[in-house]
Input
Amino acid sequence: MTHVRILNPNTSATMTAAVLAAARAVARPDTTVSATHSSGAPATVETHVDEVFGAAGVLGQVERGERDGVDGYVVACFGDTGLEAARERAAGPVVGMTEAALQTATLLAHRFTVITMPPRTLAMTDRVVASMGLAHRCTVRAVDVSVAAIEAGAGPAFDAFVLEARAAVAADGAEAVVLGCAGLTELVASLTDALGIPVVDGVAAATTAVEGLLAQRLSTSRAGTWAAPTGSATTDEVWR
Output
């Protein structure tokens, strides 16, 4: 049986439960899906400082996952916080929700938009879009809603996302929408109905991507960039 673990870089148990439900909804019946969240990290990841502490939290979760025998991981934070370090530390594949969502969108539409939140996180998404060479196909937009505001449910953000998505369709020629936060999964169905175009949730996309890699017996290359680190400290050693 395959074990996939969802890694939440922040400390929100509510958001962890939401991303776990999103992953289980698309995972195969024979896949065990679990989820963890950071301790000592920020409650939400909305700044570059948050990203640093969130990345350390992701690394700590991977170290625990390796001891638990986890086969593969999903980083459930838009911006793929801590992804590179997680790939170095994990024996199995690690997929970021942002990269998975963008790759999925390329299979569905020629042009698409990411709608993230709040506006100050635009740079985090821009970074991933640029690193994947998709700036010519993807525009990045933001709504002025904080991540903390949707922790108890994304419903209040629905109208803001509809307006921004419709603007992207009209002004940018967007043919699909990528939701730019791990806490927005509950909006997928209602936004799809309202917009009439594909709406991609990164946690779902990343979960099925990890399953696909494991089914093919593929994992991170150790030839160079993501070679396993030698002699580096563990997070337990750094934070004790």
